[in-house]
Fold this sequence. Notes:
The structure holds two protein chains of two kinds. By secondary structure, chain A is an alpha/beta fold. Chain A has a single domain, classed as P-loop containing nucleotide triphosphate hydrolases (Rossmann fold). Chain A is 34% helix and 26% strand. Chain A is built from eleven helices and twelve strands. Chain A has helices spanning 55-62, 82-86, 88-97, 105-108, 114-124, 129-142, 158-170, 188-202, 218-221, 239-244, 246-251, and strands at 15-26, 29-40, 44-48, 70-75, 78-79, 98-101, 176-180, 207-212, 224-229, 232-237, 258-262, 265-269. Chain A has a six-stranded mixed beta sheet, sandwiched between helices. In chain A, α7 (158-170) packs parallel to α8. Chain B has nine helices and two strands, in the order ααααββααααα. Chain B is 73% helix and 3% strand. Chain B has a two-stranded antiparallel sheet with strand order 1-2. Chain B has one domain (3-269). By secondary structure, chain B is mainly alpha-helical. The interface between A and B is medium-sized, with 34 and 25 residues.
Amino acid sequence: MQEEFQGEARQPEALEFEADQVSYEYERVPALRGLSLRIKAGERIALLGANGSGKSTLLRLLDGLHFACAGTLRFRGAALTEAAMEDDAFAFQFRRRVGLVFQNPEIQLFNPTVFDEVAFGPLQLGWPREEILERVHATLEWIGAEHLKDRAPYRLSGGEQKRVAIASVIVLDPDVLLLDEPTSMLDPRSQSQVIELLENWNNGKKTIITATHQLEILGEIAGRAVVLERGAVVADATPAEVLANSEVLESANLIHSHRHQHGGVPHKHPSQYLRHEHPKS
Amino acid sequence: MSAGVMAKTVRGFTQALGQTLLSEHAAREHGLLQALDPRVKLVGLLALVVAAALSRRLNVMVALFGLGVLLAVASRLSLLALAKRVWLVALGFTAMIAAPALFLTPGVALYRLPVGSLAITVQGARSALLLIARVESAVTLSTLLVLTTPWMHLLKALRTLLVPVEVIVLLAMTHRYVVLLTETANQMFESRQSRMVGRLSGQQQRRLMVNTGGVLLSKTLEIGNQVFLAMQARGFRGEVRLLDEFRLRGWDYVAMFGFAMVAVAAVVAGR
């Protein structure tokens, strides 16, 4: 008998995910090493880390796509295992509540039109036809993509693809949204559009977990920052505290020495994102 | 073949494939076959394909091919595009396979080659023509099915005909995989071209092709796996679900009867 989720209505502070000594490896190459983490309902968390630190792997585990090789990972009290996800009733409930936006929208967009793409998730979850039509139109309108509904996703610009990829998950109105580098490879305008979308959607009630190595968006997307280094948590604090900890950031390869000149005077500091004094020129 | 020509060929193939497989323009036209229930279309056209395969008479196969052309016109498909992307390609491949039969089939000499003792026989020419006609009609009818039916509708139709979920997943992934494969090949050729100066020798070109093939395979397998994860992440478990459920209407019953009659007539007349 499959374990069931504990409780339907999520109270703030209720535990969503609980990872205890979770390890994962790709063909004997460790990606996560004894990672422990507790995530509560309504939290906005940024998973920070350099490339290869385990952020994307952790998101895939949290989305029930990969499964821990060692340790336990629980969602609302139920263990996220391969056996659990093979159970239709469990998988249905889980997919209804947790959504993942992949880093590369080309991977996520596989339908012939934008409309079909956004409707794909609700269709899989067996929603009634009228509800699907209503929700898809509302979601497309909300992301400003109603005019793109008949276009082929692979022909959209990078920013449009990203917004459609987010819409294709948000249409399900999940309680937990997992985002893998949502603003990577986007121009500044598209970046701010995506961040604005997420801010408006969240409304303080949803759990949003964003994997990123872009420190400049940290304050806008998260109230808690978890720094990963070689598959383990090395810092877990508020964004301000993490940004102030240049030692951790440098060790996790999130910042590097930034050199520039002020009126011909050479100047060096850990990162352009960290608070620092400039020499008087 | 130079690397530039290879890249151009791959690019052209990618664009054609992308337009055909992904955009589904033809499937959204208001034509005869598009108006039919996908299950009727699937069973009906496959019955005609089987009839073409069983037939041993050239006139029956030509008639089936003619029917395919008529259906294409009624379904607003471009005959020019069909000729370029389907008929010529099928003709080229089949002609290569059929060519030896022209000379090797024993029988009355139709034309003796000026050099050597080889001769095209009447029986050989007939066998080659039969093979080409059979392939052209079967390929035309199958192409009509694919072009006039949105891919997900086709999968759903297969599923309603009790094709196992595993096969459906395989087909769904193959569809996406083929496009990914050509896109990746295109990018790899462009990337290589941007770093290349001068011409490659024949040996270098062959090595390049082999290396590219290997890398391409492993790369697209990885991407294909990621796409499957993305589908799973949104609840895909092998069952195909559509916004509109299939419903048989009066016209579908007429078409079903028509397909059955033509298929039976073709099998009987083609014996």
